[in-house]
Amino acid sequence: xFLQQAGIPDNVNFLVLGMVVLFVMxxxxxxxLYWRARNLRKNLELxxxxxxxx
Amino acid sequence: MTMTTAPxxxxxxxxxxxxxxxxxxxxVVALLMALFYAPTDQQGHVQRIFxxxxxxxxxxxxxxxxxxxxxVLYLVRRNKRWDxxxxxxxxxxxVFSGFNLVSGSIWARPIWNTWWTWDPRLTSAAxxxxxxxxxxxxxxxxxxxxxxxxxxxxxxxxxxTTVIFTTVITRVRPDTxxxxxxxxxxxxxxxxxxxxxxxxxxxxxxxxxxxxxLAVTLIWHRVRLENLAExxxxxxxxxxxx
Lengths: 54, 242
Known about the structure:
The complex is a heterodimer. Chain A is an all-alpha fold. Chain A has helices at about 1-5, 10-54.
């Protein structure tokens, strides 16, 4: 409201959208990195066990 | 013949742990500066997207540059480690330039009254992103590892021309409507604003440095993941072949 009185458009909703996209894109990729590493470590543990048994 | 010995996976060292902590801290501070420290421009609050928008472009361009240099080094040395670095850098670059594209579109909606227009700068940025997305597809489409690494290296070098083109296009095409903040904007630029206060300059510089640190940190983590994947693959062959 104060911004509009000063002649500045109120478009904060687009800023909020931008911040959501920022966290979704960067956070999503970092989460995928963590997920891939977690699955690989599980596989590694299983393979190490099989390797020891053989 | 390519060297294919996968490094043994280890826990992150002190340098990477410290760099990760620094990158997270800088990311939070950069975001707070963009949202609360930088003054409100005549465009309204949406102008604050500009700080992570430009930071992401710089981080992405650096990642693609690392990808191109690593590709050259792979062709010279034929060492798998350079291919791993190129792949990691380009994947990180895709995230950064992807956000650059989407955030620009979000800014454009209230300022240009459209989500997208086939402006020279926007088109070249989209072509750049698609070119690197195709790099990932190319890798998955070639079965022989040595051929894959070689093709990917050549493609990684050629693809870098799109980064150069996207960077300089606002200087060579006066009909673009995309504003420029360093130096004079093109004559048709719409939604231009000036970085005319010390708070804006400090926020911009800090954001650029932050996204560069973030890109380097994420590339390093991605390299470690690729090394782990190779180690698991090698162990799998060892277990199966017995």
